[in-house]
Amino acid sequence: MKKEKEKAPARPLLVKIFILYLRIYFNTCGRLFRKWAARKALRIFLSPKRNPLSAERQVFNTAADKDFLLFKQQNIRTYSWGNPTHKTVLLVHGWEGTGVSLAMYAEGLINQGYRVIGFDGLAHGESPGKQTNMLEHAGIVQAMLQAFPKTEAIICHSFGGAAAIYALGNMKVHKVKKLLSIASPTRMNLVLENYMKVFAIPKALMQVTEQLAYEQYGLSFSKLNPENWIPECSATRFLFIHDKDDLSVPYSDALYLHEKFPDTELISTKGLGHNKILWDKNIKQTVINFLASDKNLENRYE
User: Fold this and answer.
1) Which of 120, 182, 205, 266 would bridge with 127, disulfide CB 3.0–4.6 Å?
2) How many domains does the chain have?
3) Biggest CA-to-CA distance, the chain
4) Contact 215/157 with Cβ under 8 angstroms?
């Protein structure tokens, strides 16, 4: 049975009006008052929307052992499933996700003898804040690895994949054996460029926004690219899973990283898109197989 391609979600009327307003704003005030407009552009870029949990994910939330982890004087919500004495897998959610976004893998991993942990990033889920960025998300990954030293593998989605690779590349103490990244961006400067295109932000304003991001948060988008940090990571195996019809993060991102680092593994799918791919039964089994075996997996989904 042929799978339907992912369709771009229809934008509600109010969202369309808001985007139109910002396009006008950035192309009028943005040309006259660049610094002021850049602050607004950066604030929107770093402000995720908190989405309500689906019924399926609410079940995962209820089943979890919940706690807090102190990070930068703020309480980060953490989640745990399984036996605390067992070897551990860390789940790292993407932008506008939560600590239970990848919990559909928990049962299968627990059956394989793992404990599964996750967290809500700042400005996500039950953690505090209104804005966050990749450096903060990576910092929480590092804090989780320090708090849970039995962690042997990381499973991440979208923005969480780039953050996890950056975290491992800048962490010399903790050794993670495997990293599995699903639908993750690999060229962070393109993420910013795509955001700018949505709001038709002029190139000159984009440059001011990038400079402001660096001055305020130390964000240098080209330096955050995973290709800079994979050689520094402790992980001995990397698996990238990406759908060719992903409308949020292009398939070319995964292909680019895999071609640059041929020792990594790439599994390509078609028709699953950016989010539905997480629920696919074949992908669920692939996750289990990757953690359970040291043999390279066949790319049998194309």
Assistant:
1) 120
2) 1
3) 60
4) no
Structure tokens at 95: 């932008």
Report which of residues 3 and 185 the model is more confident about: 185
Residue 125 sits in a domain of what CATH number? 3.40.50.1820
Q: Is the pTM of this model over 0.85?
A: yes
Whether 275 is in a domain gets the answer yes
The residue whose two tokens read 């520094």 is 232
Write down the mean pLDDT value for the chain: 91
pLDDT tens profile 10-25: 667 887 888 888 888 8
Minimum mean pLDDT range among 9-13, 35-39, 245-249, 261-265: 9-13
What would the two tokens of residue 146 be?
Answer: 């320090």
> Domain range holding 91?
46-187+225-292
Place of tokens 């950016």: 274
DSSP-assigned states of every residue in 142-161 = HHHHHH-TTEEEEEEETHHH
Under the phi-then-psi rule, with left for phi > 0, alpha for psi from -120 to 50, and beta for the rest, what region is 158?
Answer: left
* Cα–Cα nearest to 102, from 188, 47, 144, 161: 161
